[in-house]
Amino acid sequence: MATLLFTVTTSNTSTSSGESSTENSWCQSNWVLNREGCCIRTAEGKGRGVYASRIIPPQTVIEVSPVLLFTRTEYNDYGRHTILDHYVYKWRDGRMALALGLGSIFNHSSHPNVSYTIDPAHQCIRYTSTRTINPEEEMCIFYGQNLWFDPVGTTENLEPQVYLDQSDQSEFLDILAIDIEVVEVEPWDTSGDPHDILEGEALPFIWKKLQIDEEEESMEDIRTMQAWAVDISNSKYIATMLKWLKQSGLESDTLSHLKRIRKRDSISTLLLSVSSSVPLLPTNIDIGDPYQISVPCNPALTQTSLILKNTLWPTVYAPRRKWEPEKWSIAKVQWARDAINHILRNTAETASSDELPVVAYVPKPFEDEALLSRSFTAKDTRISTGHPLRHAAMNIIRNVADWRAQTTPADLLSDPLKPATSPSNGSLGISDTSSNGVNYLLTGLTLFITHEPCIMCSMALLHSRVKEVFYIVPMPQTGGCGGSACLPALKGVNHRYSIAHWRQKEGNAPAHIDEQIDA
């Protein structure tokens, strides 16, 4: 195996404005291996490594290395017993690949400045800078978490030595090595009747049990709201007022966790509503005037909170039930598996776009396609747009919102959750005002995403009223679905969605990104 080397002679070349004579002399003393200015140097304790001879901007392809592929048998019988075992990459179908060129010279760093993507079609590996790389700075990739050696030093996050155009927004994405292949989830055991129920280990995913914060156990913890009430001194009017209340339209689910009547001594008090204006009461019944009182916002989940809340108003006791996941049939598991394969295929396509390999997908519902008449796919576009909020989950919520906003009367029949827009002539449809806030964007729908959504995206999904979220790669430091926090389990949120972690089998994982990145 031979490597073509060439040198750059600078003795007859004037120094550019962004370089010093010291940098030029450094370049002269090292072999420059390609047009991007990559050099090989030997570092103490690390051996040979790849270094920059000049400033390299972010998202620059610095090396494309062809590979030699070994079958599983060849590698197990011979390759793994040699020094090659320290340099090969895992390929699809169980093969191992040896990168030629500079591919086998890049050292490891837990904070790499170079990412790599695997290109199975052309049997090569592409290496790309993830941020500005300075002259004399080593270029490193990420080998993974299970290292067979003790790492020496780290790649320094040096400040650029030249002024970069302010339109370059990509430096905040310090992406770790990206290892992308077009992979599909191995079939789970789905033999049998499609209506048979799969449970526990038979499922290809693990439900995350939401650990709800502790209930209010002191008066200071109890959350209250203002409600209208009226005293009824003569008990014979209670039945009449209850009947009137049902017909008045004042009843709502907001007060469903509270008992309607409170009795103290000879006075009965009727709970009316939480309306902002004073309720208009019947004039032919001898009762008092309505007034506002503080009542609990939630039912009592423990005996202690029940006693405390009853001092404000008689409250329903609803002890927390043991969490039980929804039953999944073989047919529904296959529907979910198809969705996971869809995001894996789309993740592979990001290899040529330099975007973060995060993909979100909302398919048509398994049981009720009337909730959504088409599917949606969205990718992370923070790099191409230079916008830090263009996460895949945020993009898919935005895409659904844009689609629902473009409605014709025919759409209402096929997609009842899609809010209508009044035509200009006012003769058809429902006005924007009347539908505003009535229909949430993802009610009853399932989101599949390659990486655990960050806290921002998890909160956006909560507000969208999504039914459940499935992810493949956990993000323990930034995730909002059980990683660094679990948004649906927080006390006081007005919606909770189910969370499932899709089981990864070897070779079926999507690309990895830096654990510090918000996916």
From TrEMBL:
Protein name: SET domain-containing protein
A GO cellular component annotation in the UniProt record: nucleus
Xref: InterPro entries: CMP_dCMP_dom (IPR002125), Cytidine_deaminase-like (IPR016193), SET_dom (IPR001214), SET_dom_sf (IPR046341)
Species this protein is from: Suillus plorans
Keyword vocabulary terms for this entry: tRNA processing
PANTHER family, alphabetized: CYTOSINE DEAMINASE FAMILY MEMBER, INACTIVE TRNA-SPECIFIC ADENOSINE DEAMINASE-LIKE PROTEIN 3-RELATED
Classification of source organism: Eukaryota, Fungi, Dikarya, Basidiomycota, Agaricomycotina
GO BP term, pick one: tRNA processing
Domain CMP/dCMP-type deaminase, first and last residues per copy: 344-483
Pfam family, one: dCMP_cyt_deam_1
Entry's family note: Belongs to the cytidine and deoxycytidylate deaminase family. ADAT3 subfamily.
Family annotation (SMART domains): SET
Gene3D superfamilies tied to this protein: Cytidine Deaminase, domain 2, SET domain
Domain named SET: residues: 36-144
